[in-house]
Amino acid sequence: xxxxxxxxxxxxxxxxxxxxxxxxxxxxxxxxxxxxxxxxxxxxxxxxxxxxxxxxxxxxxxxxxxxxxxxxxxxxxxxxxxxxxxxxxxxxxxxxxxxxxxxxxxxxxxxxxxxx
Length: 116
Description:
Helices cover about 0% and strands about 60% of the residues. By secondary structure, the protein is mainly beta.
């Protein structure tokens, strides 16, 4: 399967936070988040391990109550069921990989960007 870049298909899931699933496989799924300055990804947890990379911007990322300032090029891993949230300090773009595959994120695929 191949995924191709396009500016189409982003869905706002929270105020100032847009998502698009850009590729997936049997065990993993990759999403791109576009986040506006001052937006908030509220505290939550899920069974999926989550590994991310900040492409652009700046944010405060909290994992199990510990926070780090994240800058472009920084990365992180959020363990399964860890409580986490993010405060977006600057307009930001992040890539996130989830394992196991997040079935609830398959709906964020723009089918025109995928070739099987």
